[in-house]
Design a protein that fits this description.
Strand content: 15-25%
Number of domains: 2
Structural class: alpha/beta
Order of helices and strands: EHEEHEHEHEHHEEHHEH
Number of strands: 9
CATH class of the largest domain: Alpha Beta
CATH architecture of the largest domain: 3-Layer(aba) Sandwich
Strand order of the largest sheet: 2-3-1-4-5-6
Helix content: 25-40%
Largest sheet: 6 strands, mixed
CATH superfamily of the largest domain: P-loop containing nucleotide triphosphate hydrolases
Number of helices: 9
Distance between the termini: 34 Å
Length: 309
């Protein structure tokens, strides 16, 4: 169910104001479920999901809205200590988005509990000028005793004005969390067309759907070294042709992605084509190539071209 549909019309608008709108930044270490929670709050898929760290590389602005409110969620790259040009850009984006937001949602993992990475992020957030809300996610994967422990530890972080236990995957607690986030928004006009659900360009969204299939099927060093670039999109009578390049850093990674007899790249292509057809609503011919771009994560020009700021 779309979590926005059950929020009463006008209930979250301030008195005397027709609309309210604003930005909520999502912070959290890798693999706490920020992308899944973003999709749940918006009510549609705007961010790819994987159990692998560093899945999210771009700051995706996802748009949730009702008749008189619009909430823009900025799903930040997972906060981590910079290791290369890619992660340095990701860290700079985290700091910039927090500075411009109207509130911040910190996401914790109920299954794994609170660790050093969560405490490191909490320390960063203590200097933020905006209200901090914590969502303890993945309740469906933690027993009651574990959940109670994590909720207590979340309170002890000393940064949140409110804490919500949720399961983004099952939708538990999402509605209450969304209502609270909307209550933090200032009065103002909408930033996006009410029908829009993300600020991603079509080419970036389609590239991410291809990368999601790579993440689903690969292990170890390959996921971090993969990026996807859409080279051409054409449409004739509702039928689409998409040419895309999967970038890796070594010949061995290329071999893994192609697979024995081409089976891996065929499976990636089949999964990606189905996801893209659901997105575009038409038949898709997807042509994939795997290319080696050595050290692309440290190449500022490649990062610029891929739109990773």
């Amino acid at each position: 169910m779309d979590p926005m549909s059950s929020l009463p019309k006008g209930a979250l608008s301030g008195p005397g104001h027709s609309t309210r709108s604003g930005f909520i930044a999502l912070a959290g270490r890798p693999n706490v479920g920020k992308s899944t929670l973003t999709n749940a709050l918006v009510g549609s898929k705007v961010a790819i999901v994987s159990d692998k760290p560093q899945t999210t590389r771009r700051a995706i602005r996802a748009v949730a809205g009702g008749d008189d409110w619009q909430l823009i969620l900025v799903d930040l790259p997972g906060v981590q200590r910079p290791r290369d040009a890619l992660t340095e850009r990701m860290q700079r984006r985290v700091e910039a988005e927090l500075d411009e937001a109207d509130g911040c949602l910190m996401v914790l993992n109920a299954e794994q509990g609170i660790g050093p990475g969560d405490r490191f992020i909490a320390q960063l957030l203590k200097g933020a000028r905006v209200p901090i809300v914590i969502a303890v996610n993945k309740l469906d994967r933690a027993n009651q005793a574990k959940t109670v422990t994590v909720l207590k530890e979340a309170e002890e972080l000393g940064v949140a004005e409110a804490i919500f236990p949720v399961s983004a995957r099952k939708g538990t607690g999402v509605e209450a969390l969304l209502a609270h986030l909307v209550s933090l928004l200032p009065s103002g006009p909408f930033y996006f067309d009410p029908r829009q659900r993300s600020d991603q360009s079509e080419s970036v969204l389609l590239a991410e759907l291809v990368r999601e299939q790579v993440l689903i099927r690969t292990r170890e060093e390959v996921p971090h070294a993969v990026e996807v670039e859409i080279e051409d999109i054409s449409e004739t009578d509702g039928r689409f042709r998409i040419d895309a390049a999967i970038l890796v850093e070594t010949d061995s990674q290329k071999g893994i992605l192609i697979g024995s007899g081409g089976r891996m790249i065929k499976a990636i292509g089949t999964g990606a084509r189905r996801a893209i057809e659901r997105e575009l609503g038409g038949h898709v011919h997807l042509a994939l190539q795997v290319r080696v771009r050595r050290h692309w994560r440290a190449d500022e020009r490649v990062l610029d071209r891929l739109g990773i700021e």
